[in-house]
Prior knowledge:
The protein has 17 helices and 14 strands. The chain is α/β, with parallel strands linked by helices. α4 packs parallel to α7, α4 runs antiparallel to α8 and α7 packs antiparallel against α8. The chain binds manganese (II) ion.
Amino acid sequence: MDGCSLSNLARKILQIRFPEEEHPENAWDPPLPDWPTGLPDLDILRDELTAVQKRGKKVVLYGHDDMDGISGLFVGMRVLLNQGFRVIPIIPRSATEEYGIQPDRLKGLLDPGDLLLTVDYGCTAVEGVRWARTRGARIVITDHHTLNPPLPDAHGLIDPQRTGGPATDLAGCGVLYAALSSIFPRWENDDQLLAVVALGSVSDRVPLRGWNRYLLCRFADIRMSRLTVGLRHLMNAWPSRESAWSGAMVRAQITSTIGKGFNSGITRILQFMFSNDQTWCQRTWKEMQTRSIERGYLLGEILNKAMKKKDPQADAFGMILVYLDDLPAGMGGTLASRLCKVYRRGSVVVSRRSDGTLGGDTRSLGDWNMAGFLLSMKHLFTSAGGHYRAAGFSSEFTDWAVLREHLISNIAEFPANPVPKPHIDLILDSLPDPSELTCLSPFGPGFLPPAIKVGTMRYLLQLSTGSPHWCITEDSGE
Length: 478
Ligand SMILES: [Mn+2]
């Protein structure tokens, strides 16, 4: 966004949102980030890539089976294949597999001397990395998830959480993009990478500010003619891409159409993004839409059940806590997201795994750091991890009553409120023309739509239906 095209009212809102900054517009839409300052071990990745090419061995790219992870696989494949590497992508199946790098998925694929490179994945994969090392492979992890020692003994660990700072806002695909475009600068402004990183980042609900805002502003200028047919399909499905949009609109139209887990399009979307076959893309997108509607019905039924079963004691602390013993595999995160949206607060969904143990998926809003919350009670879990907005855990508990007690007392003690307070940017005598503020879009986590108070009413800028308008609501717009 060109700073000059901001309305006076928009400038005022930026001043209010960035009170410490001399130039709020630059804080909001920063210049080209110095990627390497946020990425530890970047020099190791550079050396490992040079070395694997010299050895004549391949790169095995291990992703994560959500939109962020798949977008990261696209980034890795596009850059590395074009740079002359041999690359094999692996998509884990988290609906049926334990989280982490699974030796079973690497057997027969990962050879001695290969480089195992992960994206959006792997910072907890102690066992998987050990296996890959004994196999004689080199390993570099790229991830953005909260670190939870013991860390895997990889040759390199590129996770901005190690150093802190603005890079911690990046999604997993953003981390790999930043790493590879630092090493191979000619990819910095690639239209396909910018499109895919925007989709992966918005899908992962990372904050739309700082380094992500920089990426989204470059994304606004992509040339459709430079995209594959598959990516053009996705960009055409992107609501109001060339005017004003929010992350929630994109997740409703694209991310949830692709879906996650059983019966979703997640295993086909990588091929889709690389495809130049118009007929196949059209048919595949239609199929994904149909399945997404079916998943929507199923989710509606489960949501109904979950709403009736939410825990009254957790409720009193402002958190939605639901235990369902018959939740279909892979639906926990989607259900937690939906509960979070319906009740406008954090949610924890616990279900029974096929081996009888209890595991959970969580989502949050406001200043409640979900990964931080789970890690504050990590002694109770066999594994826990994720990020600010979305996290999960596995445990050895089989008795729900016992795990519930632990969860409730930790919710009560965690020093944040799971119910965000609706923000207000300005108090005015009358509502301004909403089009004066659409220049601040996109809106989403970390940069919410403007909210104006007039009299006793709070109005939130709405972009989702028709032309921009004001709506009386206590919603955050996240
Ligand atoms: Mn991610």
